[in-house]
Amino acid sequence: SETLIKGERRINGQITEADGPVRPAVSDPDGLLKRSRELLDLFWEIAKPERETRLQAAEKLVEQLKKSGEADELNYAVKRLVNGLSHTREQARTGYSATLAQVLSVFEEISLQSTLDQIKEKHNLQTANKKQIRNVVFGNFFGVLALSQSSRLHKETQVLLECIKLLQTLSQYREHLRELPRKTMVDILSETSEEVFEEVLLNALQTDLTCALSSPEQLELLLVAMQKFPSVIKPAKLKKLLGTANIISANTLPRLVEVLKTAARSVKKESVLPSVALDLLHVSLREDSFELFWKEAVISGLLSDPPGPCHYLVFRLLGVALPLLSVSQLQFVLSGEVMRRYGEHVASAQLPERFKFSPEMGEYVNSFMQSCREPERQLTVILAFTQLTHQGYPAVPSHWKVVEHMEPKALRQYIAWLKEAFCQPQLDKCLEFSTRKQREGQESTVPNETCVFRFRKWIVPRLTSIVENNRIKKDEELVMGIARFIFFHAFFDTKKATAGIPETTCSLSVPLDSTTRGITSSAFYSLLQHLNVLPVLDDSAEAGAGSKRRALGVMADGSMWVHRLAEFADALLKQDAHVQNTRTFTEEHTQAWDSMLQSVEMLMKKMKKSPAPEHTAFQHLFLIVGIQMFMAPEDSVELLKDLRSCMEKAQAKKSKKKKKEADCEQEPHWVEVVVEILLSLLSQPSRLIRNVCKTAFSRVCPHLTQPALSAILNIELDLKLCAGSSLHSHQRTEDITMKFIMTSHFINLCYQDEGESDSSDDDADDEAMEEEQEEVDQNFRLELMKVLQGQNELATEEDGGEDEQEMDDEAMMKLDKNLATLFGEQKKKLQAKKDEKERLRREKMLVRDFKIKVLDLVEVFLIKQGSSVLVLGMVEPLLSVIENGMSSESGQQEMDFLRRAAAIFRNQLCRGKQYCKEVEGREAELHEMLERLIGRAQKLRDSSVALYYFSAALYVVKVLRGVVKETDASQAAEVNMGKADVERVTNCFRDALTSFMTRRKSPLTGDMFIDLFNRFPAVCVNLLDTAVENITAGVREHQQSQACAMLLRALQSKDVKQLIPSAQWTKLCQKTAQQLIQCLQHVEHKNKAVHERTVKALELCQYLVRTIHTQKVEVNLDPLRDALRSMNADGSLQKAGQLEDTYWSVMKLFGIQKPKVEKVKKVVEEQTEQEAPKKKKKGFLPESKKRKNRKKPQVLEGKEATETAAGAGGVEGGKKKKKKKNKRKGQGAQSEAQSPNKKAKTEPPQSKKQKKKQKQAGGDQASAE
């Protein structure tokens, strides 16, 4: 083995001739060293940090040992693995231990006794010093671990006994191994047979079992032995060991509490439940002493400590105990002090940077709910956590997801309990907890009404979350029951109970206040929003539908959820003797409600005969607006009237429309009224209404007219009239927007906290005040002068023309009163200005929010009707919105609006798959629009806005071209452009390209024209001459480089090549070559722009030369080659870089290779560069300016450095002399540099230890040199 180790070092190059005297050659008759190269490499891989690498190396080692079958290699491998068990790195120790276990498991000829002897011999605990003890301890432990994992330990009882004794010895080194030896003993016991335990291990473990109540590890060892070998450790044996026949008893509980506290502190950082605590819980259940254990050990023992590890152990014990307890035991545990302490922890942990145990408890409860299938036990646990309250508010969140695994029966009972608790809250049955400040009297107690309000405030979102959670198993009856309950208590009161309305059977013990009703009504509309997108709950109905589109917002029978709720509301309105509406309906309201239901019934009948999207849209709108009557009756009545008249117009027959066409010219189309209604609904701050409006609008999109679309665009354009919009539509849009401002402003005032608004606007008010102080009102100045002058005149008259004297008290009081009145009026004026400014700001914010909502309708129309002719009228208005947004304020809301509008324009309009194909008779209009867009793009200042205008122009060209059909290459370019006038379009883009090339600051970019060339080859062909000319005629180098890039992209296009005849192609190549010659002659790389132009020109040149050579075009390239040669006349293009690489790629096409640089020159240059700094070392800084550090050794130079080679004594002597010389020189330099009045600071004297260290460091430095 020593030979192998020596051979490994020699193979790896670790032993050289410099290591010491040359040893005699090692005899290797078997050639083992030559064959084991791969074997030695595997031991290095076993110690690597990567787990996968270690596992693969272990497998390879076992396979190689199997193949070789040599005993020497096997013994060497075992020895290497045993040596590696005490490695300093944890991953290496783990790798060697696992590999040793695998080797012992595969090769049974290896004796476990010999292996254990090797482990003890190599890692001797008796001879190890303090520095080695840690590694030695780990070596012994991982050795025993490898033996236990080899699955052979139970076969050799003597080795098993020695391993147990060794683990007992290792348990003394707790600072290194902690509880690992005890856990390993437990694992060994769990795999040992009862016979072996009784005959071999019982006597060896006698001491540990007798002291079981002293430490968690020993107690766990006893509990595992009791569980594994119950016939061996009987009550009689247990009484002999511990003095008691039961583990849980009055005598053992105090010691058990101490053991549990020790275990809790030991796992403080790991945040886990100690295994000994779980074992004690199982023992208490087996011995039927659970209540005694819970009361004495848990409540009286562990909870007596301050909040900390012991409390967390109790909480974890509670979590793991839930699946093990019966209903009565669950009620006992969940209604006691442990739950109260858990509630206190939840309340105190809400502060920042506090440890929160609630997520872990949620996992415990979720695991219990998932594994338990008994409804009674599930309900017990859920109700216990729900009834854990603080001032009426439960400690668990209202959206607690543990109810996902509840059985249907338990879920129904839980919902029934929630409804009853909402109506008749019995807070005395809840487990109320208080905080430390409340117990100490630092916080006042809250009244019972507040607790009831907080409890109801939690119950309402708890009910809605059950419906909104799609993972909870529920049926339609359950969902409808929750929706009816919330709707009833949001808008109705019970007069007299009736069996026809189940919600009236449970009376309210405490009346609902306005705040609770507001919360309940908001929860109802949120629930209604979810019901509108709820899939069918009946699986059979979905399965029967087959491949049909999945229906949302409907029940299994096809009726909508909102319709069922409307029917329930109608039944409540008709039961005047039993229920009462919180908002009394007038006769007009009742008529509107009845009319709404009649319209819905009529639409349902028509849907059965002939289904149509507009019918569903009207039905949905009627129901949603009708439900809104309980929140805002007046507005809903007006909307219902407009909606009904709109529906009647839509349902009218075509013949009647033709007869009354002359009479109805002034009346708006029904779609226009629908759009106006949708815009009015969008004024309400409701997500439900917003989504309903989007859905309804998507269904009436096919019937949309130009005035209706103009009404939407007018809002986006700040009420400016678009082309084709009518005065009537403009006025109606103004009314809608003003109504939105008033409605939203009123809602914000109702729910706004004045304190927050005041504090949020302090900065703005301060700025306004500063501006107003700078610009003093001239009228106020004049009024102030009048008051002061009037007082002076009065004082003069009273004095009788005498000299000025001091005013009396009456005159002074009169002056103060006049000044106070004047300043009070001025303050009111300033406040009025502030209020007006704030009002305008709020209105602007509300209008912007309204516009963001209206963008939803624009997006829906572009998605649903992207091929409509009306889309053409949206191009310029949307561009105006983007342009105005770029130049407006940069607030967050404005940026969101602009980003949304730009995304809709780019993705849904310009890049949409659908576009208008019906351009018959609109060619002239589209060409004029194209010219306007290109002209506007050239006049802008911002390139980002110009990009949108240019994209719109390309969209117009795409519309004019129409559908592209495959045509022969011989056909003319005009054939591929459809209805577009190629000459007119070309002139338009040629002017734009010329403007870009001749203007120094142009908003256009080269990428815009490259996109044009890629999408429309017919236009590209006509613009090639302009691009070629501007290779040299561009106003700046940037434009010239962009011209090269455009031309390169055009020449690479196959479509462009097909449209150009061969003669014209030859002429184009010749002209391009001439332009490149002019561009590449006399190139001086002044700046980055010139460098970019040269690179682009060379790229174009490379493609041009390759194309000419490949296609054998008759073009003379000699002048171009000469121009390229002249670029490298001075040899400046020999280095590496993009420009140089491109240049030599072009020259390679002419047969000229890049010359190779001689390496000798580089070596000479490097030597000169290295020698140069050596000459400049002297005189950089005077010694007085250098920072000195006496602790670091000085580097010796010159003659004194040669003295260090004499030996160790000479080194030290030379070092001292050098220090003295440097010190004298430094002092002399300082004395010369400083003034005579100042003295140089001397360094403090060094201690003997520092001098000794400095000498050693100097000696090491000298020897290294």
Automatic annotation (TrEMBL):
Presence of keyword Electron transport: no
Cellular component terms (Gene Ontology): nucleolus
Disordered: annotated span: 754-775, 1165-1265
Gene Ontology terms for molecular function: RNA binding; sequence-specific DNA binding; transcription corepressor activity
Species of the source: Pygocentrus nattereri
Positions in coiled-coil regions: 640-667
Matches recorded under PANTHER family: MYB-BINDING PROTEIN 1A, MYB-BINDING PROTEIN 1A FAMILY MEMBER
UniProt-recorded name of the protein: Myb-binding protein 1A
Family: Belongs to the MYBBP1A family.
Native organism taxonomy: Eukaryota, Metazoa, Chordata, Craniata, Vertebrata
Keywords attached to this entry: Coiled coil, Nucleus
Subcellular location field: Nucleus
Biased composition (Basic residues): 1174-1193, 1215-1226
